Target: DNA-binding response regulator
Amino acid sequence: MLTYNDTEEKAVEKIIASLADNIQLETVQPASTPVLSFPGLEIRQHQRRVLQDGKDINLTRLEYSTLVLLASNPGIVLTRTQIFEAVWNMDSDSCQSSISTVICNLRKKIEPDSKNPTYIKTVLGVGYKFDMRNAGE
Model:
């Protein structure tokens, strides 16, 4: 596992932000599928419910929206900026810590082991992706 301190993280985020201006990113939207089902995890969008092994998981609005966005785009790496703009519905240059906090809280609630996530993977220096290949293993 690779870790870095706050100063290093801010430097990496500045580099990524400057690179993002030169990279064309896909526009992502939540899928219209009413139920997203993965091993051990079910998202019932028409009821705004998340079930882990059949048990309801209580999520905040931001956690739920972030999960739906990621799960609706499995395998696609989404930048923190893309997640922020889609979930918060606004532009921001300082979204990095907000996204990290929501992802951390979400992992604590839905991952069997939040320190070794199976659903929400970090793509170092880029963002996050929902990995359905390893989900439930």
Observations:
- The radius of gyration is 15 Å.
- Residues 43 and 50 are 5 Å apart (CA to CA).
- The first strand starts at residue 35 and ends at 38.
